[in-house]
What does this fold into?
Amino acid sequence: AQLSECASKSSPTIVQASYHAKRVMATVVHPSKNGSNSNDANGTTTTTTSTAHHFLKPLTTTQRDTTTSTLHRPILTSCTCPTLHHLAQQTVNHLPGKTLAQMRNEIDMGMVGSRSSVAFRHTVLRENVLPAIASSSSM
It folds into this structure.
């Protein structure tokens, strides 16, 4: 987000906002039937005892930094989820003209924050985001 210059006592105003949606590439890990220990690249030991659950493991790159220690960073690709793009675009459109103080108040009140219940988030998706996606894809 780009913020405006402000006087020392006022909160900066958001002038422009944008988003970049990315997703982490992952592979499915199938645990063994008998229960076994496995070590990943970071030396973490994982014990698996059931075949009922499958896990996603992020694909990572191996890079060396200046101290010659190995870094494992997740491989990111562009996200193509229409629901995420629609919700992100609504958020980006909401931000310009608002001050940081106003945004903090909205987050604290649960209007756009993570403090809202799962039921509330489902209602927002069902009533606002999903119908807009359905109408745009039917055109």
